[in-house]
Amino acid sequence: QVQLVESGGGLVQAGGSLRLSCAASGSIFSINDMGWYRQAPGKQRELVAVITSGGSTNYADSVKGRFTISRDHAKNTVYLQMNSLKPEDTAVYYCNADAVLTTRATIPCWGQGTQVTVSS
After folding, report:
1. Is the N end or the C end of the chain the one with fewer CB atoms within 10 Å?
2. What gap in Å lies between CA 96 and CA 111, rounded to an integer?
3. CA contacts within 13 A on the Cβ side of 20
4. What is the pLDDT along the chain (120 residues), one digit of tens a residue?
5. Residues 24, 35 contacting (CB under 8 angstroms)
6. Cα–Cα distance for residue pair 64/47, rounded to 1 Å
7. Beta 18-26 vs 28-39: how paired, if at all?
């Protein structure tokens, strides 16, 4: 019913930048919170950043001051601008959206994940 398609991952040297995008499509009436999570090998998935429908943001301490989350309501898209990347940022990054369907049911949705690799 709802698809999240991520793009923008890749390989970058430490200190570099990447911009992730995640576009939601399907039977969407509206979207509440949108966010980015990441999972490194052997570790649990963790919250990176979240943005509410009103534009309030919250970040993991490890990325504060380096990453910026934003969204385009008209495009149902969320972005993650990642600057000053570190090797420890290497992970699969997942997009998440709290979608309100045209039926008014609310469901959590996940993207397929995009790999971010930061070389030292």
Report:
1. C
2. 7
3. 35
4. 899 999 999 999 999 999 999 999 999 999 999 999 999 999 999 999 999 999 999 999 999 999 999 999 999 999 999 999 999 999 999 999 999 999 999 999 999 999 999 999
5. no
6. 12
7. unpaired
